[in-house]
Amino acid sequence: MRSTISLSPRQMALAVALVAGGGAVGTLARDLALRLQSAATPSLPNSSTYVSSNVATFVRVAHPSWSSHVPWVLLGINFLGVYAAVVLLRGILRHHDPNDPMRLLLVTGLLGGFTSYSSLFVSLGEIWHLSVPASLGVAGGAVASGLLAAWLGLRTMGPRR
Amino acid sequence: MTTLYVSLAGALGAVVRFLVEYAVRRHHPTRRPWATVGANALGCAIAGWVAYQLVSPVDATARAVILTGFCGGLTTFSSAFAIPAILQREHHWGYAAALITSTPLLCAAGFALGAGLAHP
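Output (C-alpha coordinates, whole complex):
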Protein backbone atom coordinates (compact mmCIF):
# COMPACT_ATOMS: atom_id res chain seq x y z
CA MET A 1 0.00 0.00 0.00
CA ARG A 2 0.98 3.64 -0.04
CA SER A 3 3.79 4.58 2.27
CA THR A 4 3.35 8.06 3.65
CA ILE A 5 6.22 9.16 5.87
CA SER A 6 5.29 12.85 5.79
CA LEU A 7 1.73 14.11 6.01
CA SER A 8 0.41 17.22 4.28
CA PRO A 9 -1.25 19.80 6.58
CA ARG A 10 -4.63 18.50 5.50
CA GLN A 11 -3.68 14.86 6.13
CA MET A 12 -2.23 15.88 9.50
CA ALA A 13 -5.50 17.60 10.50
CA LEU A 14 -7.41 14.43 9.59
CA ALA A 15 -4.89 12.26 11.45
CA VAL A 16 -5.16 14.34 14.64
CA ALA A 17 -8.97 14.32 14.42
CA LEU A 18 -9.04 10.51 14.00
CA VAL A 19 -6.58 9.87 16.85
CA ALA A 20 -8.46 12.32 19.10
CA GLY A 21 -11.86 10.81 18.27
CA GLY A 22 -10.66 7.26 18.81
CA GLY A 23 -8.77 8.28 21.96
CA ALA A 24 -11.82 10.03 23.42
CA VAL A 25 -14.10 7.03 22.87
CA GLY A 26 -11.48 4.53 24.10
CA THR A 27 -10.77 6.57 27.24
CA LEU A 28 -14.50 6.99 27.92
CA ALA A 29 -15.04 3.23 27.66
CA ARG A 30 -12.10 2.54 30.03
CA ASP A 31 -13.28 5.20 32.49
CA LEU A 32 -16.81 3.76 32.62
CA ALA A 33 -15.54 0.17 32.96
CA LEU A 34 -13.14 1.15 35.77
CA ARG A 35 -16.01 2.74 37.68
CA LEU A 36 -17.62 -0.68 37.94
CA GLN A 37 -14.66 -1.80 40.04
CA SER A 38 -14.20 1.44 42.02
CA ALA A 39 -17.90 1.30 42.94
CA ALA A 40 -17.20 -2.03 44.59
CA THR A 41 -13.91 -0.98 46.24
CA PRO A 42 -13.60 2.77 46.89
CA SER A 43 -10.07 3.86 46.01
CA LEU A 44 -7.94 6.98 46.23
CA PRO A 45 -8.92 9.72 46.88
CA ASN A 46 -12.68 9.42 47.10
CA SER A 47 -12.80 7.63 50.42
CA SER A 48 -13.93 9.69 53.40
CA THR A 49 -11.12 8.12 55.42
CA TYR A 50 -8.62 9.87 53.19
CA VAL A 51 -7.05 12.50 55.42
CA SER A 52 -3.32 11.99 55.13
CA SER A 53 -1.28 13.51 52.31
CA ASN A 54 0.84 10.39 52.44
CA VAL A 55 -0.38 7.87 49.88
CA ALA A 56 1.54 5.00 51.44
CA THR A 57 -0.05 5.65 54.84
CA PHE A 58 -3.50 5.94 53.32
CA VAL A 59 -3.12 2.70 51.41
CA ARG A 60 -2.02 0.84 54.56
CA VAL A 61 -4.84 2.26 56.70
CA ALA A 62 -7.79 2.27 54.31
CA HIS A 63 -7.16 -0.89 52.27
CA PRO A 64 -4.70 -3.08 54.14
CA SER A 65 -5.26 -6.06 51.87
CA TRP A 66 -3.09 -5.86 48.74
CA SER A 67 -5.52 -8.09 46.86
CA SER A 68 -8.16 -5.31 46.94
CA HIS A 69 -5.76 -3.16 44.85
CA VAL A 70 -5.33 -5.66 42.01
CA PRO A 71 -6.74 -3.83 38.95
CA TRP A 72 -8.77 -6.73 37.55
CA VAL A 73 -10.91 -4.57 35.27
CA LEU A 74 -7.86 -2.76 33.82
CA LEU A 75 -6.07 -6.09 33.31
CA GLY A 76 -9.13 -7.29 31.38
CA ILE A 77 -9.24 -4.07 29.33
CA ASN A 78 -5.54 -4.38 28.48
CA PHE A 79 -5.96 -8.06 27.56
CA LEU A 80 -8.84 -7.25 25.18
CA GLY A 81 -6.91 -4.30 23.72
CA VAL A 82 -3.81 -6.35 22.91
CA TYR A 83 -5.91 -9.14 21.36
CA ALA A 84 -7.93 -6.70 19.23
CA ALA A 85 -4.79 -4.82 18.10
CA VAL A 86 -3.05 -8.02 16.97
CA VAL A 87 -6.17 -9.22 15.12
CA LEU A 88 -6.48 -5.84 13.35
CA LEU A 89 -2.76 -5.49 12.53
CA ARG A 90 -2.57 -9.07 11.20
CA GLY A 91 -5.97 -8.78 9.52
CA ILE A 92 -7.62 -5.83 7.78
CA LEU A 93 -4.77 -3.42 8.59
CA ARG A 94 -1.89 -5.73 7.64
CA HIS A 95 -0.77 -3.76 4.59
CA HIS A 96 -1.42 -0.36 6.11
CA ASP A 97 1.39 1.92 7.20
CA PRO A 98 1.28 3.71 10.58
CA ASN A 99 -0.22 6.86 9.03
CA ASP A 100 -3.17 5.03 7.51
CA PRO A 101 -6.43 6.71 8.64
CA MET A 102 -8.10 3.45 9.69
CA ARG A 103 -5.07 2.38 11.72
CA LEU A 104 -4.86 5.84 13.36
CA LEU A 105 -8.55 5.68 14.34
CA LEU A 106 -8.66 2.08 15.61
CA VAL A 107 -5.17 1.22 16.89
CA THR A 108 -3.47 4.54 17.77
CA GLY A 109 -6.68 6.23 18.95
CA LEU A 110 -9.36 3.77 20.09
CA LEU A 111 -7.25 0.89 21.46
CA GLY A 112 -4.47 3.25 22.60
CA GLY A 113 -7.00 5.25 24.63
CA PHE A 114 -8.82 2.12 25.85
CA THR A 115 -5.69 0.45 27.24
CA SER A 116 -3.33 2.05 29.74
CA TYR A 117 0.14 1.36 31.09
CA SER A 118 0.11 4.29 33.53
CA SER A 119 -3.03 3.23 35.45
CA LEU A 120 -1.45 -0.21 35.83
CA PHE A 121 1.55 1.37 37.55
CA VAL A 122 -0.64 3.49 39.84
CA SER A 123 -2.21 0.23 41.09
CA LEU A 124 1.20 -1.49 41.27
CA GLY A 125 2.41 1.45 43.38
CA GLU A 126 -0.47 0.98 45.84
CA ILE A 127 0.24 -2.75 46.08
CA TRP A 128 3.97 -2.00 46.57
CA HIS A 129 3.18 -0.19 49.85
CA LEU A 130 1.49 -3.36 51.19
CA SER A 131 3.60 -6.13 49.71
CA VAL A 132 6.59 -5.73 47.41
CA PRO A 133 6.51 -9.39 46.30
CA ALA A 134 2.79 -9.06 45.50
CA SER A 135 3.40 -5.97 43.34
CA LEU A 136 6.18 -7.76 41.44
CA GLY A 137 3.86 -10.76 41.01
CA VAL A 138 1.00 -8.63 39.68
CA ALA A 139 3.43 -6.82 37.33
CA GLY A 140 4.63 -10.18 36.04
CA GLY A 141 1.04 -11.32 35.66
CA ALA A 142 0.18 -8.18 33.66
CA VAL A 143 3.09 -8.79 31.25
CA ALA A 144 2.16 -12.48 31.00
CA SER A 145 -1.47 -11.57 30.21
CA GLY A 146 -0.27 -9.20 27.46
CA LEU A 147 1.89 -11.94 25.96
CA LEU A 148 -1.00 -14.42 26.18
CA ALA A 149 -3.39 -11.98 24.47
CA ALA A 150 -0.85 -11.32 21.69
CA TRP A 151 -0.29 -15.06 21.21
CA LEU A 152 -4.06 -15.71 21.06
CA GLY A 153 -4.38 -12.89 18.51
CA LEU A 154 -1.65 -14.41 16.33
CA ARG A 155 -3.32 -17.83 16.65
CA THR A 156 -6.72 -16.40 15.70
CA MET A 157 -5.27 -14.91 12.52
CA GLY A 158 -3.37 -18.09 11.68
CA PRO A 159 -0.05 -18.60 9.88
CA ARG A 160 -1.35 -17.68 6.42
CA ARG A 161 -0.01 -14.13 6.39
CA MET B 1 -18.81 16.55 33.74
CA THR B 2 -15.70 14.80 35.04
CA THR B 3 -16.42 11.96 32.61
CA LEU B 4 -16.37 14.43 29.71
CA TYR B 5 -13.11 16.04 30.86
CA VAL B 6 -11.50 12.62 31.34
CA SER B 7 -12.54 11.63 27.81
CA LEU B 8 -11.19 14.87 26.29
CA ALA B 9 -7.94 14.55 28.23
CA GLY B 10 -7.64 10.98 26.90
CA ALA B 11 -8.02 12.36 23.35
CA LEU B 12 -5.27 14.91 24.07
CA GLY B 13 -2.96 12.22 25.46
CA ALA B 14 -3.50 9.99 22.42
CA VAL B 15 -2.77 12.93 20.07
CA VAL B 16 0.47 13.74 21.96
CA ARG B 17 1.52 10.07 21.62
CA PHE B 18 0.71 10.14 17.89
CA LEU B 19 2.68 13.38 17.36
CA VAL B 20 5.72 11.97 19.20
CA GLU B 21 5.54 8.79 17.08
CA TYR B 22 5.05 10.81 13.91
CA ALA B 23 7.96 13.17 14.64
CA VAL B 24 10.33 10.24 15.24
CA ARG B 25 9.03 8.26 12.26
CA ARG B 26 9.43 11.24 9.96
CA HIS B 27 13.07 11.86 10.84
CA HIS B 28 14.03 8.21 11.27
CA PRO B 29 11.89 6.16 8.89
CA THR B 30 11.76 2.86 10.74
CA ARG B 31 9.34 0.23 11.89
CA ARG B 32 10.94 0.22 15.30
CA PRO B 33 8.46 1.93 17.63
CA TRP B 34 10.80 3.41 20.24
CA ALA B 35 8.61 6.55 20.29
CA THR B 36 5.78 4.41 21.69
CA VAL B 37 8.10 3.11 24.42
CA GLY B 38 9.03 6.73 25.19
CA ALA B 39 5.38 7.83 25.33
CA ASN B 40 4.62 5.00 27.75
CA ALA B 41 7.56 5.87 30.01
CA LEU B 42 6.66 9.58 29.93
CA GLY B 43 3.00 8.81 30.74
CA CYS B 44 4.03 6.63 33.67
CA ALA B 45 6.39 9.34 34.98
CA ILE B 46 3.61 11.95 34.91
CA ALA B 47 1.23 9.42 36.51
CA GLY B 48 3.76 8.71 39.29
CA TRP B 49 4.07 12.39 40.09
CA VAL B 50 0.32 13.07 40.00
CA ALA B 51 -0.58 9.93 41.99
CA TYR B 52 1.63 11.10 44.88
CA GLN B 53 1.18 14.87 44.49
CA LEU B 54 -2.54 15.50 43.84
CA VAL B 55 -3.71 13.64 46.93
CA SER B 56 -6.09 16.10 48.58
CA PRO B 57 -9.81 15.35 48.21
CA VAL B 58 -10.19 18.74 46.46
CA ASP B 59 -7.83 17.46 43.76
CA ALA B 60 -10.08 14.48 42.94
CA THR B 61 -11.27 15.87 39.59
CA ALA B 62 -7.81 16.98 38.44
CA ARG B 63 -6.44 13.62 39.54
CA ALA B 64 -9.02 11.70 37.49
CA VAL B 65 -8.59 13.96 34.44
CA ILE B 66 -4.78 13.65 34.42
CA LEU B 67 -4.40 10.02 35.60
CA THR B 68 -7.33 8.27 33.91
CA GLY B 69 -7.60 10.76 31.05
CA PHE B 70 -4.31 12.27 29.88
CA CYS B 71 -1.87 9.60 31.12
CA GLY B 72 -4.26 6.81 30.10
CA GLY B 73 -4.46 8.25 26.58
CA LEU B 74 -0.72 8.95 26.37
CA THR B 75 0.19 5.39 27.36
CA THR B 76 -0.87 2.30 25.47
CA PHE B 77 -0.78 -1.32 26.54
CA SER B 78 -2.25 -2.64 23.29
CA SER B 79 0.53 -1.39 20.98
CA ALA B 80 3.19 -2.27 23.58
CA PHE B 81 2.38 -5.96 23.05
CA ALA B 82 0.77 -6.03 19.60
CA ILE B 83 3.65 -4.36 17.72
CA PRO B 84 6.26 -6.81 19.13
CA ALA B 85 3.90 -9.68 18.24
CA ILE B 86 3.77 -8.45 14.63
CA LEU B 87 7.57 -8.00 14.57
CA GLN B 88 8.07 -11.49 16.00
CA ARG B 89 5.90 -12.91 13.24
CA GLU B 90 8.16 -11.09 10.78
CA HIS B 91 11.17 -12.85 12.38
CA HIS B 92 12.47 -9.86 14.35
CA TRP B 93 12.71 -11.97 17.50
CA GLY B 94 15.39 -10.08 19.37
CA TYR B 95 13.82 -6.72 18.70
CA ALA B 96 10.37 -7.93 19.84
CA ALA B 97 11.88 -9.31 23.05
CA ALA B 98 13.73 -6.02 23.67
CA LEU B 99 10.46 -4.05 23.34
CA ILE B 100 8.49 -6.41 25.60
CA THR B 101 11.09 -6.25 28.40
CA SER B 102 12.21 -2.62 28.12
CA THR B 103 8.71 -1.08 28.20
CA PRO B 104 7.68 -2.25 31.72
CA LEU B 105 11.19 -1.57 33.08
CA LEU B 106 11.28 1.98 31.68
CA CYS B 107 7.68 2.55 32.83
CA ALA B 108 8.61 1.41 36.35
CA ALA B 109 11.66 3.70 36.34
CA GLY B 110 9.53 6.61 35.11
CA PHE B 111 6.79 5.97 37.67
CA ALA B 112 9.33 5.71 40.52
CA LEU B 113 11.00 8.92 39.38
CA GLY B 114 7.69 10.82 39.25
CA ALA B 115 6.56 9.42 42.61
CA GLY B 116 9.94 10.22 44.14
CA LEU B 117 9.79 13.83 42.96
CA ALA B 118 6.30 14.25 44.43
CA HIS B 119 6.89 12.48 47.72
CA PRO B 120 10.59 12.36 48.59
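Residues 9-40 of chain A form the longest helix (32 residues).
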